[in-house]
Design goal:
Elements (H helix, E strand, L loop, with lengths): L4 E5 L2 H19 L7 E5 L2 H9 L3 H17 L4 E3 L23 H11 L4 E5 L2 H4 L3 H8 L3 E3 L3 H13 L8 H16 L4 E4 L17 E3 H14 L2
Parallel strand pairs: 1-2, 1-3, 4-5, 4-6, 6-7
C-alpha cells in the first residue's frame, strides 16, 4: 500500500494545486483513478500572516506543528508543505515533528542540479526572496542564485497577496512577471524558481522567458515517489 501523504497547507490556491497534482499524476504510477491516500489541514492564512508580519517564525512553527499533529492523528505517514515562505520556520518544526517531512526548496534544488542549471532566479513573496530558504538549499546543491531588485520584490509580493492567493490571475501581472524573468535572464540565470506555490498558476512554461522550476508540482511529485517507494 502507498504511504499516506499529509499536506500542511497555508494558502488555498497553492495547496489545491499540490493536492490536485498528487491525485491526477498518481494515476501514472498506480493506475486509472488511483492515487495515495491524502489528508490536508490548514489554519487560516490570516493566522500565519499575523506571525509573518511580526517576523515571528516561532509562531509560524507552532501553526505548522499543530497541523502536523492533526495529520499524524489522521494517519499520515509523512508531511509536505506547499508553501515556500513558511519553510523559513522548517528547522523549528522538523526535529520535533510527529512525522518526517519533505522540503520544497530542497526538491527544487535537486531538480535544478538534475537539469544542470548553473544560476537560478528566485521569485516568491518578499519574505521568501529576502530570506534564507532558497539560498541555503541552492548553495548546498552547487547552484548559484539571483533575486529581483527591491522594487521588483515589493511589486511581486503585492501581486501574490492581492491577487494570486485570491485566485486572480491577470494578464498585466503575467506581463510583469515575464519582464522580471527577462531581467534575471539578462543577469545570466538559466532558469527561474517559482518559489511561491501560486505563481505556477500564472506563469507557465510556455509564457516564461526562462525554463521554470515549479516548486508546487515538484513537491507533489516527490511526495508521490516517496509514497509509492520509487
Amino acid at each position: 500500500m502507498p504511504q499516506h501523504i499529509g499536506i500542511v497547507a497555508c494558502s488555498a490556491e497553492g495547496a489545491a494545486l499540490c493536492y490536485r497534482t498528487i491525485c491526477l499524476e498518481g494515476t501514472e504510477l498506480l493506475g486509472r483513478h488511483n492515487h495515495p491516500e491524502v489528508s490536508l489541514h490548514t489554519h487560516p492564512l490570516a493566522q500565519y500572516m499575523e506571525f509573518i508580519y511580526k517576523n515571528d517564525w516561532a509562531g509560524v512553527a507552532e501553526l505548522m506543528m499543530s497541523s502536523a499533529q492533526k495529520l499524524a492523528s489522521a494517519g499520515a505517514d509523512f508531511l509536505i508543505c506547499p508553501d515556500n515562505t513558511i519553510h523559513q520556520a522548517f528547522e523549528l518544526v522538523a526535529h520535533r515533528s510527529p512525522r518526517p517531512w519533505l522540503h520544497i526548496a530542497e526538491e527544487a534544488a535537486k531538480e535544478a542540479k538534475r537539469c544542470h542549471f548553473k544560476r537560478i532566479g528566485v521569485l516568491g513573496t518578499r519574505y521568501l526572496m529576502e530570506g534564507p530558504v532558497y539560498p541555503e538549499k541552492l548553495k548546498a546543491a552547487g547552484v548559484e542564485h539571483r533575486m529581483p531588485g527591491q522594487n521588483e520584490r515589493i511589486r511581486i509580493n503585492q501581486i501574490i497577496f492581492d491577487e494570486l492567493v485570491n485566485a486572480q490571475f491577470l494578464p498585466r501581472s503575467l506581463a510583469y512577471f515575464s519582464e522580471v524573468i527577462r531581467s534575471l535572464k539578462d543577469e545570466g540565470c538559466d532558469a527561474v524558481a517559482l518559489g511561491c506555490t501560486e505563481i505556477p498558476l500564472l506563469v507557465t512554461p510556455d509564457s516564461s522567458p526562462l525554463p521554470t522550476l515549479d516548486s508546487t508540482r515538484l513537491l507533489a511529485r516527490a511526495a508521490l515517489r516517496k509514497a509509492v517507494g520509487t
